[in-house]
Design goal:
7-stranded mixed β-sheet; 7 strands
């Protein structure tokens, strides 16, 4: 059983660069089975450092909340509010393969929902999920999101077009 004291959601910071690169490299194959691949240049010290700078610049503008998910101090995931604008935002999360099935995506999503409501005044969240990503769809549905729109061939995963669904939650 997980204890809340072992789980932390931290705002991404420049000091996370080395650990974040290690995490992204270790989980790259796993993530790329489910979501579009990041550009090759991302997987370098400079690429991750630039990514962090870009995320923090958007955070300073209140357009993004980039969180690192840590379990006992180790990065096991990412959770983001992005495209924050006019009371709306998108949620996204990625959890390490070995950490899946432990409720971390659920907890990360609930943290994003709480931040969206309390810190940003957001009244509508959306997530875009590949139709075959049943685990992510279940996490969203359990958190009160509902499928609202099908996007044919919206993303490309492993070289193949993937149909996606837009899930939304309003309050």
């Amino acid at each position: 059983m997980q204890h809340a004291k072992d789980l932390a959601f931290d705002l991404m910071c420049p000091e996370d660069s080395v650990d974040l690169l290690h995490f992204e490299l270790a989980e790259r194959v796993w993530f790329e089975q489910h979501i579009e691949a990041r550009p090759e240049r991302f997987y370098t010290p400079q690429g991750v450092a630039q990514h962090i700078v870009e995320c923090l610049a958007l955070h300073a503008q209140r357009r993004m909340s980039p969180l690192i998910v840590r379990w006992r101090g180790r990065i096991v995931g990412r959770a983001n509010l992005r495209d924050i604008d006019n009371g709306q935002a998108r949620v996204g999360y990625r959890i390490a393969q070995a950490a899946c099935g432990q409720g971390l995506a659920h907890k990360a999503l609930h943290r994003l929902i709480e931040d969206a409501r309390c810190l940003y005044g957001i009244t509508r969240l959306e997530a875009i999920v590949a139709e075959e990503n049943a685990a992510s769809r279940r996490v969203l549905e359990k958190a009160g999101f509902r499928a609202e729109l099908r996007l044919a061939a919206y993303s490309t995963v492993l070289g193949s077009p993937r149909d996606c669904q837009v899930f939304c939650r309003r309050w």
